[in-house]
Amino acid sequence: MTSSLSLRPITGWSGNKDYFTFREYDKFDPEAVIDVLDGKVAGVMFRGMVAPEVAANISQRFWDSPHRKVRGVEAPGYYIGAYTWNKPTGQYLDEAEEANPILRDLLDVPNDPMKEFYAGLGSSLAKRGAVVRPAEHEGRSAAIALFRSWHGRGAFALEPHDDDSQCSDPQMADFERNRVFGNPIAALNICLENEGGGGRLVYWNIQPDLESKRRLGVEYTGSPYPHECLVDVESKWIDVHAGDVYVFNGAHVHAVEPNTTERQTRTTLAAMMAYADPQNVVTWS
Ligand SMILES: O=C(O)CCC(=O)C(=O)O
User: Fold this and answer.
1) What's the rounded mean pLDDT across residues 61-86?
2) Which residue range forms the structural domain that includes residue 101?
3) Ligand 1 atom with minimal separation from the 266 CA
4) Which residues form the Fe2OG dioxygenase domain (predicted)?
5) Whether 172 contacts 89, CB under 8 Å
6) Using one digit for the tens of pLDDT, what is the confidence trace for 202-234?
7) What does the pLDDT read at residue 23?
8) How is 57-114 classified by DSSP, letter by letter?
9) For residues 225 and 162, what is the distance between their CA atoms, to the nearest angstrom?
């Protein structure tokens, strides 16, 4: 049962108006992604970065795949890939090892947007003496991506959550990702389909502090934050269309708005990344 104590407003860090914005671009600019990694801006949106036929081709491959799985109550929907949330390192890496060949096969298409994204980001980081690569542990690697289609039927298709709490999960203390904790978490999302209305990203101007996370029991999971705790927090509702690629600081509480009808589907291809040290941006899913 939720106590009135846990429903107190969330406290934490909020950015000023120069920071708390989603900068819009009409083509990919990897330097803008580095601004998110550096914590200079909350989010960046590359409108129409993926051509409609490429997005449609990849989303069709997702829906047709025999490897598509159902995800449970914490984030209802369908997915292909592996996710780190609330599990030990060994389990995640086993799942990543199984998922990576499937993901490579699904993305073996002309103009793979992940390849384009990492090639651009890699070149920009190289000028700073840094690389982007999957997080590792004892010679094993993180999953390269995660396909998802959220289908929560409540106030949100995906409940309000943050992406940085899980980086301090003791179950994964030995995983290289643990080194990113405290740095901005850049959440990469490539929208493959979102026909009709709804499906916006809801993004609150708060990075919850440890006291709030502990009070709500989300210190290591970052999920879910009760809606009641967020009503007074500034928010942005970001329109998302097929072909858009967006990157935002996942340490802020965020959620996904439901589509307007149950038959609509909103499918994205995602990964997360952050500096483990000044020379290494590591990725995971
Ligand atoms: O689909 C989106 O726009 C955001 C997804 C998200 O919040 C997540 O995967 O943590």
Assistant:
1) 91
2) 23-284
3) 1
4) 136-275
5) yes
6) 999 999 999 999 999 999 999 999 999 999 999
7) 98
8) HHHHHHHH-TT-EEE-TTS-EEEEE---TTS-HHHHHHHHHHHHHHHHHHT-STT-HH
9) 9
Give the residue, out of 223, 254, 266, with the most ligand 1 atoms within 8 A of its beta carbon, to mutate for a pocket test.
Answer: 254
If one counts the domains in the chain, the total is 1
Note the pLDDT tens digit of each residue in 187-200. Answer: 999 999 998 889 99
- Atom in ligand 1 nearest the alpha carbon of residue 268: 1
- For atom 10 of ligand 1, which residue has the closest CA? 163
pLDDT band at 1 (very low <50, low <70, confident <90, very high): very low
At 168, list the tokens: 């301090």
Q: What is the CATH number of the domain that holds 83?
A: 2.60.120.620
277 within domain boundaries = yes
Residue 5 lies in a domain: no
Cβ-contact 59, 259 below 8 angstroms: no
The answer to whether position 219 is within a domain reads yes
